[in-house]
Amino acid sequence: MTNKIEIDPKVFDLYDEYCHSQMSRRDFLDRAAMLGIAGGMGVMMAQALLPNYAKAQLVSFTDERLKASYVTYKSAGGNSKDGFMRGYLVQPKGDGPFPAVLIVHENRGLNPYIEDVARRAAIEGFLAYAPDALYPLGGYPGNDEDGKILQQKLDKDKIFTDMKNAAYFLKNHKLSNGKLGATGFCFGGAVANFLATELGADLKASAPFYGSAAKLSDVKNIKAKMLIHYASDDERVNAMKEDYEKELAKNNVSFNMHIYPNTKHGFHNNSTPRYSKEAAELAWGRTINLFKENLINNG
C-alpha cells in the first residue's frame, strides 16, 4: 500500500487522538478541516488515514494453506453475560499439534486487519487465535468507528480477563503443542505485555507492538522472552519505555526492544498510510523468528 498524498504531521496527531479517545468520525473530519492546511487538504488527508481493509489483505481466507473458523471459549470473570467469548481460529495445513500464538486486536474489536494477521501467523505454521473483546456486544460491528465506541463501553479489566482466558484456551487446545506465544497491536500490545506478567512460565514468548508497558510492579513475574516494538514517533507510548526497560533489566527478563525510524503508531497496520512497509516487514519477521525459536525449537 503506498501513500497517494503526503500527510501533514498535524493530521497524524489528530488521527492518533481520534483513535484513542471518544472523538467521533465527524468531529475528526471537522477538526481536520480547521487545521488550516493549505488548499483545504486537511479533510482529504484525514480521509486518507481511515482504514481500507479491502486493499490490506495479504492472506486470503480461502488460502489452501490454512483453515479458519470462529470458535467460542469459556471466559469466567470477563465481560461475557453467558460465560462464553468468541474468536477467530486459524489452523495451518496438517494435523498438528502446532505451536500456538494469540493475536490481540487494537481498541476497536476483531477487524479484518487482525484476522489477516492471524492468517499470516498460520501460514508460518502456528495455530493462531484472535479473540474478539466485542463479542458480548454482538462482535466487531463492521467498521472501526462503531467498534471503538463499543469497546469503550466494556470494562477494561474484564477485557484483560477475557484475553487471559483466551490465552489458556489456545494453550490447551487439542491442536496446540502446549507452547504459547502472544502478540498484539496498540491496545493488543498492552494486552501482550499484561499476559507476560500474568501467565508466567505458561507464556513462552511475547511480542507487543506499540502497546502500553506492563505494570512495573508485576514485571518480576515475566518468564517469557520479550520482543517489544516501538514506533519512533509515538510520544504517548514511548513515554513509558525507559522505566519499563529498566524494570525488565532489573528483573533479569530476557528482552529486546526495537524503535523503528520514521514510523508512526500503527506502522504495522497496512490499511492506512501510517503503514511503513519496511518497518512492518522487519518487525513481523523478527516476531515470527521469536516464536519459531521459543515455541518450536525450545522445550
Short summary of the structure?
This protein is 37% helix and 22% strand. The chain is of the alpha/beta class. Strands 1-2-4-3-5-6-7-8 form an 8-stranded mixed beta sheet, with helices on both faces.
Descriptive notes:
The protein is of the alpha/beta class. It folds into two domains: 9-49, no CATH class; 61-295, Rossmann fold (3-Layer(aba) Sandwich), CATH 3.40.50.1820. It is built from ten helices and eight strands. It has helices at residues 9-19, 25-33, 42-49, 112-123, 144-153, 156-171, 187-199, 235-238, 241-250, 277-295; strands at residues 66-74, 84-92, 98-104, 127-132, 176-185, 205-209, 225-233, 255-264. The chain has an eight-stranded mixed beta sheet, with helices on both faces. Helix 7 (187-199) links the parallel strand 5 and strand 6. Helix 6 packs across helix 7. The termini are far apart. The model has no long low-confidence stretch (mean pLDDT 90).
- CATH architecture term of the largest domain: 3-Layer(aba) Sandwich
CATH topology of the largest domain: Rossmann fold
- For the terminal residues, how far apart are their CA atoms? 39 Å
Number of strands: 8
The CATH C-level class name of the largest domain: Alpha Beta
Continuous helix count: 10
Strand content: 15-25%
Order of adjacent strands in the largest pleated sheet: 1-2-4-3-5-6-7-8
